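Supplementary Note 3. Input sequence used for the single-chain structure prediction.
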Amino acid sequence: MVMIYPREGAAAHTHPAALVEANWVTDEQREAAQMWIAFLREDEQQRQFMHEGFRPSTQLPVGCPICSDYGVQTNGPKIWIDPNHIPPKVGQQAVAAWVTLRTRAWWSSSSIRR
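The predicted structure, written as discrete structure tokens, is reproduced below.
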């Protein structure tokens, strides 16, 4: 299996962490959220996310499994599509297909390498 990025672009499947700005958020909660986000952005956590197939959200260089060994172009798509502009049903189908294909590809590659 090889990841092919369409010339029209590819959607970035984001998993954001954000601070909630509301009058019911205490200073302690705000500080805890800031600490949590800082923790998630540390290289060690970013490497773990990458190990699970996510691209880093920092300037950390990508590495396997985001690599040519798994058929992924590390430079990513040339055009990014904002997932907020994709019809929800299309997005859900794309995610479901990716989960199925990723699982099959992982089992195929892990059985070959054993």
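The mean pLDDT is 80. The two ends are 18 Å apart (CA to CA).
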